[in-house]
Amino acid sequence: MTAVRLLGAGALAAMALAVSGCASIRESRGYIVDSTLTGSVQPGIDNKQSVQATLGHPSFESQFGVPTWYYVSSQTERRPFMRPRIGEHSVLAVTFDAAGNVAGVERSGLDKVVFLTPDGDRTPTLGRDRTFFEDLFGNIGAVGAPAAGGGGPGA
Are 120 and 127 in contact (CB under 8 A)? Predict the structure, then answer.
């Protein structure tokens, strides 16, 4: 009877070990959000230097239009043998006026993320669809012909 209990306990421990290996892996990507620090940035009070001292260097800055700093943060979850999926996503956009003072702070999440799916396996291009043999033999007779402007050594 003790051998059966010992065998059952071993099988239970092996199953627990196997199931623990299937747990999802969580990873933080980008800016690590601290709600106290992000909440302390206020329009009309802070400027670029104080924002950088409080939040650090932004994930990226706008190149055109209103000067804006973006702090992007994502939490991904990945199960074994699967692609990672975004669990949480947040973007803090801090806009500045011409003098470098904070004009506005906007927070957004996964609701503003656009997921794109490619349409098919081929990229459509303009022009002719040529076969392999047309590409291979297409220039025969055209190279060096007078009408093609190739001209020979005496041209």
Answer: no
